[in-house]
Amino acid sequence: MGEMPVRLVASDIDGTLLQGGANAIDPQLWGLIGRLEARGVVFCAASGRPYAALRELFAPVAGRIAFVCENGAMVYRGGELVSQTAMDQAAAMRLIHEILADESCEVMVSAGGCIYLIPRIPERAARILPFVGSQVRFLQSPAQLPGGILKVSAYREEGAAALLPVMAPRWQGQFSVALAGSRWLDFTKATKGAGLAALAAQLGVHPAQAMAFGDNYNDAPMLDWVGWPYIMRRAAPELRARYPVAERPEPVIESLLDGTLER
Questions:
Q1: What predicted TM-score, i.e. pTM, was given to this entire model?
Q2: Which end of the chain is more exposed for a tag (fewer CB within 10 A), N or C?
Q3: CA 237 remoteness from chain centre
Q4: pLDDT confidence band for 1 (50 / 70 / 90)
Q5: Does residue 128 carry a pLDDT above 60?
Q6: How many CB atoms lie within 10 A of CB 39?
Q7: Are strands 8-11 and 136-138 parallel, antiparallel or unpaired?
Q8: What is d(CA 120, CA 98) in angstroms, rounded to the nearest whole number?
Q9: What is the pLDDT of residues 35-67, one digit of tens each?
């Protein structure tokens, strides 16, 4: 077998590895990760989800892969923290209050290894739980939040895209603002691209040796950073025009391993 042209493979989760309402990773991926590992290639799950939720989702291989969590705000490899990028606390608190003032939204905050919800409508906030894993705490007020906020998310069941033209102009100078799925608008200081770059620096991997898969605008910084980007076919037309299109990551990874992948 010849030398692998790729040494790092990163994939988004929701809409990319999890499609069509799936809530569990296809076990086929565990075998592909093992084959990548045998060839010296690191697999990385890159998501807006928190670390605890990702470890649960990838339980069979969690100790062997890397994680770019919270849209790049936290990066782990082998259970060890690689990098962490906190938001300005005062600005994050102003943003949280702004989201809470919108009756159509719930706010989710990541800080100190936990996810915090401050429910406006408890039943609506409860519907967020399947996306965030077991490390969740409910608060009555933003004043109860700890320092070191990593990510703030606005959750809008009717669709988060409507929030973008209202909130992005006010906040994009301070934070990265990106749609993450149909119901989430995420605010971080980091991006998935910056998180993946931090991981790659530790591994000694250049962008030309990295592959990434995504389906939404919060994946764009990661796809722009790698030499081998792929966008899912169900992504927005604007994104499909920017990157090579794939149905799913697994067949592309299979072709990479078999040496049949064409640029």
A1: 0.88
A2: C
A3: 20
A4: low
A5: yes
A6: 14
A7: unpaired
A8: 13
A9: 999 999 999 999 988 888 899 999 999 999 999
Bridge partners (DSSP) of residue 77 are 66, 80
In order, the DSSP letters of the chain are: ----S-SEEEE--BTTTB-TT--S--THHHHHHHHHHHTT-EEEEE-SS-HHHHHHHTGGGTTTSEEEEGGGTEEEETTEEEEE-PPPHHHHHHHHHHHHTSTT-EEEEEETTEEEE--SSHHHHHTTGGGT-S-EEE-S-GGG--S-EEEEEEE-TT-GGGGHHHHHHHHTTTSEEEE-SSSEEEEESS-HHHHHHHHHHHHT--GGGEEEEE-SGGGHHHHHHSSEEEEETTS-HHHHHHS-EES-HHHHHHHHHHT----
Residue 83 CA to residue 153 CA, distance in Å, equals 20
Tell me phi and psi for residue 154, to 5 degrees. -95, 125
155 forms beta bridges with 106, 184
- 226: number of Cβ within 10 Å: 27
Size of the chain, expressed as the number of residues it contains:
263
Distance from chain centroid for Cα 233: 18
Return the amino acid letter for 17: L
| Contact in structure between 214 and 223 (CB atoms under 8 Å) | yes
Residue 117 pLDDT greater than 90, yes or no: yes
